[in-house]
Design brief:
By secondary structure, this protein is mainly α. It is 65% helix and 8% strand. Strands 1-2-3 form a three-stranded antiparallel beta sheet, with helices on one face. Helix 1 packs antiparallel against helix 2, helix 6 packs parallel to helix 8 and helix 9 runs antiparallel to helix 10. The longest helix has 28 residues. It is elongated and about 75 Å long. The relative contact order is 0.11. The N terminus is likely disordered.
Length: 265
């Protein structure tokens, strides 16, 4: 009498290809570097017994999946979704790839968990705590540059108003560049009130740090990472995106200063 070990049925190459395309596009959209995207997809593909080839473009992800014997070949091209940078979603998606590899997670369970993350989006940190933490962080920058307590409070209020406006605009699918410009304008107008009412002795510092929360640090860091790993097209694209956002931030800040009759020099 012989016993057999029943192994889970391996998902078809077409299913794997479509899933990896959607998974990689969402991962890229929420702020992952190209090397993380490549490692996560390779990890899942190895576990499910297929070979994968990836072409990463700034706005599209090209995934080709083949069987080990080369009998079947499928290609999926997915557009990168327009979503905000989210370390929470980035981490959850990366953890999913490790669960597939370490826990031998099946295709159906993996797809179910992915759809849950996809529907939940960047949510992972409650909105109010996130808003308060961003306000405290920017107020800390004000103190770091020499601002007094009153200036810190003004910067915190300007940051809370601007960040709340940014989230509201992005939820209404407003273009990120317009959102950054508008938020920088609002924050600078609030911070410029420090000068009008002479509330602190470091009004210049409060004005200068009021829009620091809009600085595109993640795209700049990702651009440098992609450059190191020779993903030159994505590196240049992310650097240009960061440069454009910086210009939008500057335009909004200068417009607020002009409205409040604050000299730039």
């Amino acid at each position: 009498m012989t016993s057999t070990i029943c192994k889970p049925i391996r998902p078809g190459s077409r299913q794997v290809c479509v899933f990896l395309g959607r998974y990689g596009a969402l991962l890229l959209g929420c702020g992952a570097t190209c090397i993380r995207l490549q490692k996560n997809i390779d990890r899942i593909a190895r576990t499910w017994g297929v070979r994968v080839s990836i072409t990463i473009m700034p706005r599209h992800l090209h995934v080709t999946v083949t069987d080990p014997d080369g009998s079947d070949l499928f290609t999926s091209i997915e557009a990168v979704p327009h979503c905000s940078v989210s370390f929470s979603l980035n981490t959850r998606l990366s953890r999913l790839s490790w669960e597939v590899a370490d826990c031998q997670l099946g295709y159906d369970e993996t797809l179910s968990r992915f759809k849950h993350m996809e529907s939940k989006g960047a949510g992972g940190l409650a909105f109010i705590p996130e808003l308060l933490l961003v306000g405290c962080a920017n107020a800390s920058f004000c103190r770091l540059f020499g601002g007094d307590f009153v200036a810190m409070v003004i910067v915190a209020v300007a940051t809370l108003a601007g960040y709340y406006l940014k989230i509201s605009l992005l939820r209404r699918n407003v273009d990120l560049r317009v959102a950054v410009m508008t938020c920088a304008f609002v924050s600078s107008v609030i911070a410029a009130g420090d000068t009008l009412f002479s509330m602190s002795t470091t009004s210049d510092i409060s004005l200068g740090t009021s829009a620091l929360y809009l600085v595109p640090g993640v795209p700049l860091l990702n651009s440098f990472s992609d450059l190191l790993y020779r993903h030159y097209i994505c590196a240049v694209s992310r650097f240009l995106d960061a440069a454009v956002l910086t210009v939008c931030l500057s335009v909004g800040l200068c417009a607020g200063m002009l409205l409040m009759n604050r000299g730039m020099f």
